[in-house]
Amino acid sequence: MRTSSPLATGLASALGLSLALTCLLAPGVASAKRLTPEQAAEARSAVDTTDPDAMEEAAEELGDPELFLRAAEALRLEADTTRDLDLAIRALPLAQTANDIAAYLADERNYKNSDWRPVERDRAVGLVAESKESIQSIEALIAAIEEERRKAAEEEAARQAALAAAGEDEKKKRGPMKPGTGMIIGGSAALALGVGGVAIVGVGLAQGNAAQAEAESLDLPAEIDRLSELDAAGSRANNLALVGGIVGGVGLIAGATLVALGVKKRKQAGPDASASVQVGGYFSAQGGGLQLSGSF
Amino acid sequence: MLVIRASFIFALSTLGFLVPPPPASSAGPDCGEQVCLYSSSDEKSGSYKVDAKLSKKNRRKEAKKQKKQKDVELAVVILDGRGSAFVDGRYLPKAGMAIKPGKHELEIRDGEQLVSRGVLSIPRRIDSMTVEVHADR
Question: Which UniProt keywords are listed (chain B) (predicted)?
Answer without folding.
Answer: Signal
